[in-house]
Amino acid sequence: MKVKVINFAHPLTESNLQEIKSLAGCEVSEVVEVPSQIDPAKPLEPQIASRLENLGLTAQEWQTQPLLINLPSLSCSAAVVLALLHGRMGYFPPILRLRPDTDSLVPRFVVAEILNLQAIRERARGKR
Questions:
Q1: Exposed end of the chain (fewer CB within 10 Å): N or C?
Q2: Is the pLDDT of residue 107 over 90?
Q3: For the chain, what percentages of helix, strand and coil (3-state, to nearest 5) are there?
Q4: Max alpha carbon distance in the chain (Å)?
């Protein structure tokens, strides 16, 4: 199996892709870069929705293709991305969590973990 990364954040490095491969247990087939800059004077949902539309995935691909999401850093944008993706996919997608590399002189990020949001949601349902 291979996973497609949809990246709303800073570009991922070759090192990041190797970290993803190690954590996910599969190759990255493609990284799709999505612009995450928004116009704060305009409504957010249509801006994010149009970016998802521009990815060109069919309804079947949204529901069946292995996708890994690197969310935008802006929290409101990330929330809208997740809501729109859940609507298209029928579940919460797994997401990347990056963290600063504290050993690096030049600012860089490493992949800290892959969060299975659907599993987190299912565990939370048990707390009702």
A1: C
A2: no
A3: 40, 25, 35
A4: 46
